[in-house]
Amino acid sequence: MRSSDGGGPCGACKFLRRKCIRGCVFAPYFDSEQGMAHFAAVHKVFGASNASKLLLTIPPNKRLETVVTLCYEALSRVRDPVYGCVAHIFSLQQQAVRLQAELAYVQARISTLQHHLPIPSQAEASSSVCTTMDPSLHLCHHVCVLDQQLDNSM
Ligand SMILES: [Zn+2]
């Protein structure tokens, strides 16, 4: 993000086809290229005047974060008019629920198995081949192997 000190209008003023005045509230955050596309989304969703009023109520040291989140929300809303960025929040919440359930399952299995089998030594553990990049699958795989060992030993 660059200010329009170079002389040209900032991305917001360029989009609005107006003169970029000295001290323009948008200038530090919307450059004349990518900033213009971002501002187009902000204007479409929130309106330039509302965005300007909002920024003026925010202390200058918090405005960058404000602009980043405004752009994120606006771009998400343009992409998904129904859910906007809430679609992403829902998806992350469901992912967190799934991972918590998986973690609880794995912890329960580990705790059960620890009562039946000795903990493998570091050398044995590191000699097993990791075939997947997903650490949660990796952990499940080890639990399944331990399950089989337990079944065989009983
Ligand atoms: Zn401007």
TrEMBL record:
Gene behind the chain: LBD19
Family (UniProt): Belongs to the LOB domain-containing protein family.
Name of protein: LOB domain-containing protein 19
Domain LOB: 8-110
UniProt lineage: Eukaryota, Viridiplantae, Streptophyta, Embryophyta, Tracheophyta
One of the Pfam families matching this protein, by short name: LOB
Species whose genome carries this gene: Datura stramonium (Jimsonweed)
Coiled-coil portions: none
